[in-house]
Write a structure and sequence with these properties.
alpha+beta, 30s Ribosomal Protein S19, Chain A, 3-stranded mixed sheet, 2 helices, 32% helix
Length: 115
């Protein structure tokens, strides 16, 4: 649900104070717990450490992110692959195929160098 136009976007005042008068490139990561804070144009170029509940995830703000919230770029849940035993077997076969392809390519390059 969007915020009322009368109220305007929610931008954390403490974050604006931290970036006021600083250059984006020279500033270290700014840690924040304010996930619902809307990214404003003044924040472009700064590195924020957005808390995801466990750690601070580094988010480098670009122009495309303006209008979005900081929490959108700091996922709170870790994705564990789909599959299981069958998926592991498929990945193992894929790795073995890559290894044999690399060995065969290496063998052909050494054969051409001998001639």
């Amino acid at each position: 649900m969007t915020r009322s136009l009368k109220k305007g976007p929610y931008v954390d005042e403490r974050l604006l104070k931290k970036i006021a008068g600083k250059k984006p490139i020279e500033t270290a990561m700014i840690k924040t717990w304010s996930r619902p804070c809307v990214i404003s144009p003044e924040m472009v170029g700064f590195m924020f450490g957005v808390h995801n509940g466990k750690t601070h995830v580094e988010v480098l703000v670009s122009e495309d992110m303006v209008g979005h919230r900081l929490g959108e770029f700091s996922p709170t849940k870790k994705f564990v692959r789909h599959g299981g035993k069958m998926q592991k077997e498929l990945e193992q076969k894929k790795k073995e195929a890559e290894i044999t392809a690399a060995k065969s390519a290496k063998a052909t390059t050494t054969d051409t160098k001998k001639k």
